[in-house]
Design a protein that fits this description.
Blueprint (H helix, E strand, L loop, with lengths): L2 E8 L7 H17 L4 E3 L17 H15 L6 E9 L3 E9 L2 E7 L22 E5 L2 E7 L1 H4 L5 H6 L4 E6 L7 H16 L2 E6 L1 E4 L2 E4 L3 E3 L5 E4 L6 E8 L1 H8 L3 H8 L5 E2 L19 E2 L7 H19 L5 E4 L4 H14 L4 E5 L7 H14 L4 E2 L3 H11 L10 H22 L2 E4 L3 H6 L12 E2 L6 H12 L9 H5 L19 H13 L4 H6 L4 H13 L1 H4 L28
Parallel strand pairs: 1-2, 2-3, 6-15, 7-8, 8-9, 17-18, 17-20, 18-19, 20-21
Antiparallel strand pairs: 1-14, 3-4, 4-5, 6-7, 9-12, 10-11, 12-13, 14-16
Helix pairs in contact: 1-2, 8-9, 8-14, 9-10, 9-14, 11-12, 16-18
């Protein structure tokens, strides 16, 4: 088959772990050679991990990254490799080293630098100036990096006009629900527009609040996927690409000819690469393409992202065990499920901390859930500590009725106990607040918000229920007691308390929050969508008042298009209402 055999190394890089990342890349180069690949691709900034942020201000960090690239280039006898790294020259560039024959033969510099959402690349990088094409065993290949291909036009179009039949894209594209297929549809359009095959090699893994889902893919010139890697897992995807087919398609389309008559594209051409790779002919039924993993459906991919983000945050930061308050409610049930799936039951240490307001039902549900998941459950009652606080404050509070103060004291006692376990045993404390609560400030500073990692910080309450049911029914024996799902949600900080005493029902609240937080809709726009005016006004006020709380929350996994933290940034002091 005329064309090229590609290997896409979908790697889980760790930011700053240059030796560890280098080892992963070296192993993938060896595996790609073994598979007969002529060209192996690596994700954006694979050497350093993404995003390296202010590490890029350190000259010694940049020098160490370049030294790692040079050592890896020495391994490219018999194969070509394209490796993402930060290049230090007159400035710093988000770059791709093209390596073959034991050396770096050229460096492509990213042209389009994103500076929206979670991206902050203009802070760190200078833009490149020219597209690049390299001929690998007679096949012209265009090089791009992530954002370069998200926008129609250059550099992809120039590379295609300059003869590239395959355009490769090194990427670190953060996850949000549904983004993998949205991204693939965009890549398919680029392939069709430029009549070239497109190979998208993506990062996978968790980094602070971001999860990278992988989903590397190769599409032919008609935009059809011919190989696709799995989501949320490392994988070496090997794919045979027919590069004569796009050339034949271009002969039948006069539009590129008309463009070239007007202006020839300015493209850097590297010297031709001859790999000498020994390619075993694929079987007739798999003459073009490679493995084609099916994308996950919505709930499965969100749950997998929570598991991956939790596992990597714990592992990459060197924690052995995790702990959290297991209340018998829906939020802590989801955190328990995710933590056990991420780490194993022996590393998960849930704690139940009943008060005088805790019902027998929630206590027994917490015990049954921990038992079903195989976790050892610690029980630390807080009635006596609460009595002690009441006694200390009795004289000072003598003229005032009990109110939110006493409720918050209970939450803070629980937070103190969890942090004590963390200090004593080195356990990471997971918080159990969801996005609906974070949005409206329905939480206690230094209480239920105390901890090191907020697993479901970006998960709306209505989605929490769907995820618990999804995970629970995945097993032949449902580990989640039915009452956890059916019981009306309550913080249980006073008698017969319910969440909807303080907030609109979640099926009303979450659409308001989606419009206001994620889409920046104002009051009138939300009401025009049919949402109750009184609830809209109330929720907007709660969201705006809670900004100071959110600034003090631990990091958590981004799964919606616009998460708090790196994504949505508003001033604390702010008098603009709505």
């Amino acid at each position: 088959m005329p064309g090229v055999r590609l290997a896409l190394a979908q790697l889980n890089a760790t930011v700053g772990d240059l030796p560890g990342n280098e080892r992963k890349i070296a192993d993938a180069i060896a595996a790609a050679k073994e598979a007969g690949a002529q060209l192996v691709l690596f994700p954006e900034l694979a050497i350093t991990g993404y995003p390296p942020e202010d590490l890029l201000f350190k000259e010694h960090f940049l020098a160490a990254a370049r030294a790692a690239v040079d050592r890896l280039a020495a391994l490219t006898d018999g194969i070509a490799a394209v490796i993402g790294f930060p290049e230090r020259d007159d400035d710093v560039y988000n770059a791709a080293a093209v390596c073959s024959g034991g050396e770096v033969v050229g460096v492509y510099r990213k042209l389009r630098l994103p500076n929206y959402g979670v991206f902050d690349e203009l802070r760190y990088f200078q833009s490149g100036t020219e597209p690049m094409v390299v001929e690998v065993d007679g096949v012209p290949v265009g090089i791009t990096i992530c954002e370069d291909i998200w926008v129609p036009g250059a550099p992809l179009t120039e590379e295609a006009l300059a003869g590239a039949r395959l355009v490769v894209n090194l990427s670190a594209s953060p996850f949000s629900a549904g983004k993998a297929m949205q991204r693939e549809r965009m890549l398919a359009q680029r392939a069709r527009d430029s009549l070239c095959a497109v190979a998208f090699c993506a990062l996978v893994g968790g980094q602070d609040e971001l999860v990278f889902d992988g989903s590397s893919v190769v599409l032919d010139h008609r935009g059809r996927p011919i190989a696709r890697a799995p989501q949320m897992a490392e994988h070496l995807l090997v794919c045979d690409v027919d590069t004569d087919a796009p050339a034949a398609a271009r002969l039948k389309d006069s539009r590129p000819r008309a463009t070239l008559r007007v202006e020839r594209p300015r493209v850097t051409h590297l010297p031709p690469i001859r790999t000498g790779a020994t390619i075993t002919s694929p079987s007739p039924e798999h003459r073009v393409g490679g493995e084609l993993f099916e994308p996950l459906e919505e709930l499965s991919e969100v749950y997998a992202a929570l598991v991956l983000g939790t596992r990597d945050y714990v592992e990459k930061n060197g924690f052995g065990q995790v702990t959290f308050g297991l209340s018998g409610g829906i939020d802590s049930a989801l955190v328990a499920l995710v933590a056990v799936d991420a780490l194993g039951a022996d590393r998960v240490k849930p704690v139940t901390m009943p008060s005088r307001y805790s019902s027998a039902g929630t206590r027994s549900d917490a015990e049954r859930l921990a038992e079903n998941l195989g976790c050892e459950l610690l029980t630390l009652p807080i009635a006596e500590p609460m009595d002690a606080f009441d006694a200390v404050l009795a004289e000072t509070f003598a003229s005032r009725d009990a109110d939110l103060t006493e409720e918050n004291l209970q939450a803070r006692i629980r937070g103190n106990l969890l942090m004590a376990l963390s200090n004593k045993f080195g356990w990471l404390v997971l918080t159990c607040g969801n996005k609906s609560e974070m949005s409206t400030g329905y939480s206690t500073l230094y209480g239920d918000s105390a901890g090191g990692f907020a697993v479901i910080k970006d998960v709306p309450k209505t989605l929490v229920y769907r995820l618990v049911e999804h995970r629970a029914h995945r097993d032949p024996q449902n580990p989640v007691p039915e009452e956890i799902v059916t019981r009306p949600p309550s913080a249980e900080l006073r008698h017969e308390q319910r969440d909807d005493d303080s907030l609109p029902p979640y099926d009303v609240l979450d659409p308001i929050l989606e419009g206001y937080v994620e889409e920046d809709l104002g009051r009138d726009q939300l009401v025009a969508l049919g949402l109750p005016a009184a609830d809209v006004e109330r929720v907007i006020r709660l969201v705006d008042l809670a900004e100071y709380k959110r600034r003090q929350m631990p990091p958590g996994i981004k799964i919606t298009p616009r998460a708090f933290g790196r994504d949505r940034r508003l001033p604390i002091v702010n008098r603009y209402g709505g």
